[in-house]
Amino acid sequence: MKTKEEPQKQSSSRRDFIKKSAIGLATFTIVPRYVLGGQGYLAPSDKLTKAVIGVGGMGRGHFGYEDTQVVAICDVDQNHLKQAAAMLDKGVKTFSDYRELIQLPEVDIVHIATPPHWHGIMAVDAANAGKDIWCEKPMTHTIGEGKRVVEAVKQHGRMFRLNTWFRFKDTFYGMGTTVKPIKKLVDSGMLGWPLKVTVSKHTGYDWKFYWVGKDHLEPQPVPPELDYDAWLGPAPYKPYNAHRVHQTFRGYWDYDGGGLSDMGQHYIDPIQYFLGKDDTNPISVEVDAPQQHTDAVGIWRRITYTYADGCQIILDGEGKDANVPYIEGPKGKLYPGFKSDIPDLERKLAQFPDPDPEIVEFSESVRTRKKFALNEENGHRSCNIVNIGLAALRLGRSLKFDPIKQEFIDDEAANRLINPVMRAPFSI
Fold first, then answer.
1. Are 123 and 187 within one domain?
2. 284: nearest Cα among 384, 400, 381
3. Which CATH number does the domain housing residue 217 bear?
4. Which residue of 84, 149, 165, 219 has the smallest Cβ count within 10 Å?
5. Which of 127, 162, 197 is the last residue of a domain?
6. Which of 129, 162, 195 is the last residue of a domain?
7. What is the model's pLDDT at position 61?
8. pLDDT tens-digit profile of 16-61?
């Protein structure tokens, strides 16, 4: 809802939101698979077609992924749109309203690279439009939005990829290895059970505490190139200040959640995977942090998640213990660099089977209609952990969580954060 101080021009801006698309001069000759012959049929270019929503630094960095061809882009900042268009073929269509972009029949995949407060709405709308979805992390800004994305993707039979890849490729931060050997070690039982995983600067993880907000922002004129009302979208109206938008939006609760939201799924999703907990969540979270501002995200010292079986994830913001193992169990420990107190670990580990194979190229998932390694279901569960922690930080207290109902237990204020009211006319 608008506040009394919201300028009248913001109201007309939202009414005119869908009218503001700027369409490119030409149309691509690439034709989507389903037009030419259904499932599994590739366009003559041998590439799937993709549209990118949000073409700031993050969006522009993802134009070349896999065997896809960008055919359309969208942004509410005209400078971003111009910079992005200059990087692509002249036939790329440009839009200011994503709702027009997702209706393009030539688009196979919609890539969402906006601030997180838009992820849920755009993913649901894209699924409703029959598009497969590639979404940046965090998957959604709230637990309720994540549940709705899971429902929409299932309802329309879409493929979904969350863009954090450490559960299946690339060296996993300070561990000096991919996650595969860590998963194999956990599955072997050599560390025992339950396990405690500590995520800190000493185990290779930077919580980016520079992503904090300012607790007093003076109103500033909105730049002419930015449709600020459209940028806010479902978020509460607050007067424009440059620190609210683009890269520094991460420091404000309305749009993101600081370093925990920015990096949390990169760090936590592989833990969910190697602990074998992709279908559940912790039952409690404890926080040690200064009181948070109602608008601006602050720092925190320690966040402790506990699962029903006693496994724990410790997010250590202070990094007090320089010698802490990454994983600690009753039978052994694993340190950064894949070092362990278990003698002759690699030889012993070689006797155990590798983890089950997964689809790790989204183009394969789109062609075969088989789930990607990190999809809407397990991605939602790891995003829940981020959002559980953010709720505890904002409220300044420990919380109990029901992983089946996906609700907080006996805490009305926390449950209001699951499905917060969106600014009219937006809903999910």
1. no
2. 400
3. 3.30.360.10
4. 219
5. 162
6. 162
7. 87
8. 543 443 333 333 334 444 444 444 444 445 789 999 999 998 889 8
